[in-house]
Amino acid sequence: MPRSPKCWPSWFGAGVDVFRLNMAHGKVEDYDLIVRDIRQIGRQMQRALGVLVDLAGPKIRLGVLVEDPTECTAGERV
């Protein structure tokens, strides 16, 4: 979402009433400001605006693979 609250009122005219925030990117402090802006604009427009918070899931990172890989077959428990 652009950090430009000036353009948001036009979105409401187009039917937007819920904002989805992808928490996988950015800082909590940034999202705090965005939620405050959404709430303020909602009060000014006398509309209830929703905020959907999409929390970041686990991040799987791969490093250097071992030289002797383990092969798995379907149904096998590892």
UniProtKB/TrEMBL annotation:
EC number(s) stated in the UniProt entry for this protein: 2.7.1.40
Keyword Protein biosynthesis listed? no
Kinase is among the record's keywords: yes
Residues in Pyruvate kinase barrel domain copies: 14-71
A Gene Ontology molecular function term for this protein is:
pyruvate kinase activity
- Highest taxon of the lineage: Bacteria
Q: Which Gene3D superfamilies match?
A: Phosphoenolpyruvate-binding domains (3.20.20.60), PK beta-barrel domain-like (2.40.33.10)
| UniProt keywords, alphabetically | Kinase, Pyruvate, Transferase
Q: What is this protein called?
A: Pyruvate kinase
Q: What is the native source organism of this protein?
A: Lignipirellula cremea
